[in-house]
Design goal:
alpha+beta; elongated; single chain; 490 residues; four-stranded antiparallel beta sheet; 10% strand
Amino acid sequence: MKIGLIYTAICVLFLNSCGMHSINYEPKVDEKLLEENNYSLSLSDSSSKEGATKLMDFNSYSKDVWWQSFSDERLDQFISDGLKSNYDLKAALARITKARYLRSASGAQRLPTLNARGNYQEVDGGFGIQGPFTEAALTLSWELDIFNRLGYQRTQLLFAEKATEEDYEALRLTLSSEIALTYFRIIEINNRLKLLDKQIKIGNEYLNVIRLRFKEGYSSKVDVLQQESQLLNLKSQIPRANEELRVQQNKLDILLGETPDGKERFVPKKLMNYSFDYSVGVPSELLLSRPDLRAASARVVSQDAAIGSAFADRFPSFSITGNLINRDVPVYGGVIKNFTGGVLLPIIDFGRRRDLVNSNEADYKAILDEFSGTFINAVAEVENLLYQIQQRKALIVTLSKRRDVLDETLYQATKRYKKGITDYLPVLNAIESLNETEILLLSERRSLIELQVGLHKAIGGHTHQTKAALDQSVPNTEADEKAKSVEKEK
């Protein structure tokens, strides 16, 4: 009795002097980051304010999956297929399953355990003791988690599981973005091949005219050779484009979880010029909805719980053990019952437990700083994309005007050449410049779409992966199933 009182007094002293660790379940990034940025990252196209469609209406943005803003049913189907069949996503689901079982196992540590054991032994000793020795026993053991060491461990694994789930959502977002990028690249390459065919056809027409004029003595052999060289330059771009197309087609197969076969999965259409008005701001709340930031936040909480577990390990641990033993021996036998309570009090460990607490606190500081770093990188990513979209739109407008000017230049130069006023060089220069501008314009339009896709990803575009849908994909532990059945009964 006295010993029990002494232990109780020691525990009270520990509690009063140290106190228990408190977990911050809502970690924040560095305060100065929130103060110095009002996140009015906005971009407005003054030429399209009237009647423009807001892509990022934050009040309704969370209701739709991000890729539906492109209004492309074929793209919708590809992304839907990829989210079901991609092997990287399946591997991520397996990691969630592992995290759930680890969390469930940690919860079971707080409950009593019952073990059975049995012994059989032949005895042939002195003092006339002979015969078989048998023993069967049941042992009940239970660690009383008074200082919540095991509770902290369960919280640590619970938020590690949440981080794994957010990693899975981030991978879904990345996968859907990659499918969209690959899809639009395939369309752009096919459009480029069609444009090259058109340019080659026009180049052949000019070559026929020059050859005719050469036969009639109105043009030189140099004019013919220059036009032939220009045609060969166009034709030399086709193998590279076909090479790029095959690579992107195989990449799309892999993203969809299919064996690459180099075959076209769809008949490409004309590359659309998607016009969005990004006239709304990007608040910090939306940036924090990014799955990678949510995962980082969960890892901060998980590490905070690890500090609590290491801190609680410095306190005494209490346990209860009960045995029910049935012995059958030559001299004595019968049923033995015992019940014991134990306490383990750390006294001298040369600072080991204290250092473990300090080590976990250092890890917490590192993870929290990484969280803040990820946050400001997200801000910069959105800022850069918004500005790049603005500048890319201006570039496309300029290139479109240049194409129109070059088209008129070619017309005038051709007319003067046919009249014999000038040689073929102005015509050749106009053709080459026009061809290059048309190819560049097509490439920049695809680049603009890629930036728009990137912006959706940067602001954490939704993929409509609900918790219920995730639970259907990942098997629940036995403890989870029991908890659900209890909730249904209530």
